[in-house]
Design goal:
Shape: globular
Largest sheet: 5 strands, mixed
CATH architecture of the largest domain: Sandwich
Number of helices: 4
Strand content: 15-25%
Radius of gyration: 24 Å
CATH class of the largest domain: Mainly Beta
Bound molecules: 2-acetamido-2-deoxy-beta-D-glucopyranose
Distance between the termini: 11 Å
Number of domains: 2
Number of strands: 8
CATH topology of the largest domain: Immunoglobulin-like
Length: about 170
């Protein structure tokens, strides 16, 4: 029975974990807790709060609120300005929280029912497309460097996967 950690297997495992975490980071979506520590409640300036955030496609909004008092009503721009609950796009008022994913770019408007919109419970956000993952087409003179970078990452992935396979099989 082997008692010490084989350094090569250890390195391979580390590489593999690094590879996993970098691919996870590439698809991560942010979660925005509305109002931060103030949550979804009266007398919070949500215009100020939203100005400090960036909302991207596939991000999540989470509204935490005191049950039985407030609601989350998605409305159009006119009804946001007027604090009107007429023809809501979506309405949620059960429990103490509501989470939704931002699956479209553009403006989203939310108000609370029960007259609390007049006490500041109104939120307008702009959802932006995901930032471009890669730079624009590479000029010819730089393409060999780009190829090398691409080949290097492919090699790193191959090494990590093979290394992990060796780690698993080596344990048998
Ligand atoms: C909220 O903050 C914004 C920006 O600072 C300001 O223009 C607006 O008047 C404030 N709203 C209220 C209701 O105080
Ligand atoms: C929002 O909906 C109301 C009806 O509830 C309608 O009168 C208004 O024109 C709509 N506004 C926009 C910007 O679509
Ligand atoms: C986007 O989200 C809304 C509300 O959560 C839902 O009704 C709609 O079906 C979703 N659209 C897509 C394309 O997933």
């Amino acid at each position: 029975m082997e008692t010490s950690i084989n350094p090569r297997r250890h390195a391979a495992l580390l590489l593999f974990l690094l590879f996993l975490s970098s691919s996870a980071a590439a698809v991560s979506a942010d979660m925005h807790v509305i109002g931060g520590n103030d949550h979804w409640a009266p007398n919070v300036n949500y215009t100020e709060w939203a100005a400090g955030e960036h909302f991207y496609l596939h991000d999540w909004l989470v509204f935490y609120y005191q049950p039985g008092y407030y609601s989350v009503i998605q409305v159009n721009e006119t009804n946001y300005e007027r604090c009107s609950e007429e023809d809501p796009i979506n309405k949620y008022d059960r429990g103490r929280s509501y989470a939704m994913q931002l699956n479209e770019t553009g403006h989203y408007y939310f108000i609370s029912g029960g007259g609390y919109c007049w006490h500041g419970m109104k939120l307008s956000i702009l959802v932006e497309p995901l930032p471009a993952p890669a730079p624009a087409p590479v000029p010819l003179s730089q393409s060999s460097a780009a190829c090398r970078t691409g080949a290097w990452s492919a090699a790193a992935v191959a090494v990590a996967v093979l290394g992990f396979a060796a780690f698993v099989l080596g344990g048998v």
